[in-house]
Hints:
The complex is a heterodimer.
Chain A: E1 13-19, H1 26-29, H2 32-36, E2 64-68, H3 80-87, E3 92-95, H4 100-108, E4 113-115, H5 128-132, E5 141-145, E6 158-161, E7 166-169, H6 175-183, H7 186-193, E8 199-200
Helix pairs in contact in A: 6-7
Chain B: H1 14-23, E1 32-36, E2 39-43, H2 47-58, E3 72-75, H3 85-101, E4 104-106, H4 113-119, E5 128-131, E6 145-148, H5 151-160, E7 162-166, E8 170-176, H6 185-196, E9 205-209, H7 217-226, E10 234-237, H8 240-251, E11 258-265, E12 272-274, E13 282-284, H9 285-288, E14 295-299, H10 306-316, E15 326-330, H11 334-342, H12 345-352, E16 355-356, E17 377-380, E18 396-399, H13 402-411
Parallel strand pairs in B: 2-3, 2-5, 3-4, 5-6, 8-9, 8-11, 9-10, 14-15, 14-17, 15-16, 17-18
Antiparallel strand pairs in B: 1-7, 12-13
Helix pairs in contact in B: 2-5, 6-7, 10-12, 10-13
Amino acid sequence: MTDRRNMTGVGGASGTARILPDNVNTDYIISSRRKRDASGPAELVPFIFEDLLPPLSHPIQAGDIIVAGWNFGCGSAMEIAAEVLKAAGVKALVARSVARTFYRNAVNLGLPVLELAEQAPGAGVGTAVTRAAAWCVEGDRLAVAFEVSTMDRDTPAGVRNVTQGTFVPCLPPSRFAVELVRHGGLIPYYLGVKEIPRGII
Amino acid sequence: MSDSRKPGGPGPTLAERILGAHAGVDCRAGDLVGADLDLVYLTDGSAPAVIKLFRSLRMGAAPLSLFDPSKVVLSIDHYVPAPSAATARYHQLMRSFAAETGCRLVEEGRGVCHQVLGEMGLVREGALVVGADSHTVTYGARGAFATGVGSTDAAVALAGGRLWFRVPESIRLVLHGSRGPGVGGKDVALYLNRLFGTDGAAYCAVEIYAGDSDLSRDDLAAICNTSVEWGAKAAIVAGGRLDGERCESEREGGNGRFRQEIAVDLSRIEPVVALPHGVDNVVPVVEAGPVPVSLCVIGTCSGGRLDDLREAAAALRGRSVHAGVRLLVVPASLSVLENALREGLVEVFVRAGATIVPPGCGPCCGTGNGVPGDGENALSTANRNFRGRMGNAEANVFLASPLTVAVSAVAGRLVDPREGA
């Protein structure tokens, strides 16, 4: 039945799971000292996660989907942390939870970010890797729906593990976050729609 | 309208009030609002990207115009004085952008934005402030809702003066009592790192009540500064005008719609240290043992205000830094440095053998001078100790109060400041 799920809505993406630990801060995504003298995100791609322990088995590649634990992207507000992942070709990010500035920066860049719903498997104790193993292991093929097509309202936001044939529900993103991803980020939104409305949006 | 808006129900939190006032609506936690900004600031760590994005928004239209030049500040503080050609070019770009648009520029050497803008009187109570730097939360100590944003948000903020916010839930944090000897505001901040963990206040505003404590404004700045390490969106010290209303409602028994209420008796807090490589890896200094230290740092936006320098100087007066230690002192601003000069604190530091680093971010994030060597232990009053944070992944960074760093710099090892007192 999971095969019927429509993954073609806003922010729909598929890719290869790359498992990361809890509390991956922005300095671990890309260090401030690397950022200092770089002219743009492309030249920083080789240094992604370089200070992370234990190190990744192989570098982040185009077509990867990051599967992280709690509090991904904590620490600095530097947008380059989300930008380098996008520049590396990361399609989407799924985490138990995401730190607020990273979440903002990612959707502002049009990068789909999903937080697992409370009832998603792997919420208990253990490391991020053992908890993720409840639904996903490194290298699994994943399909992400940030928000699904309005034609299929019964399908929640979530991730389909194509390799294992399972579906994991995620927290529904806010309407405005969907709007941003739909436009490809805040800059295209601003150029297309202009002002952010004042008041409740 | 929800029940909580009925007369006699719990009143709005400070976050709801401030965001509501700037969005022109009554709002509550969970709402998304578009809200007008009172102040937008950038650093040399973020301005180059922001300026580029801002120009793309204008699509070449001339002249470039900010939503309100009087509400925009560019601060040169992360890379000072410029350590490379690339950073010197960032600074040139910022100077020419400020000249072109008419916004304010805080020149290199004037200090960290999270201190200087307050000294300039640009952050008022109840203001809505964004900065393209995570430690913008520091200005909660002045009663503002102040939060960090990325480059794209900042660029749109410069153009339109408005951003979207999810109105956060709030945690009420009451800090009361008097600290014991040797316990600084930074110890309270580190204690709270352990209490909250790295996401215990995720997406929340922390509303701080410190009226019944001995914490100074500088102490509260250090505490608000650290709130982002708990995942907080903002930390707001209740005081002044808003506090008056709040105290009134508290006497009536209504006290806002808080997700959680926490009270901390400051008399129970000891001098503490955050061990590598986590900000919440906090233990009492006495439990950490006599760890040898070779690089000591007192300063920056989390430990370089006047009260911090006074505490450190009191421990260094008439003493010398240990032969195996380099001590760097980084005043949070030029004004702090001037006051430290006037009070004779700088003389104490220099006589003790310390190096005075220009006001700014100093060696905090590995982008300025003062990078630790391989295998070295650095003891710092900064706010982060992630692996590689100070520019060398082979070094260990410990975080402590200015007083603990000062006495440890003399001993050459981590020392509880109450030892031998």
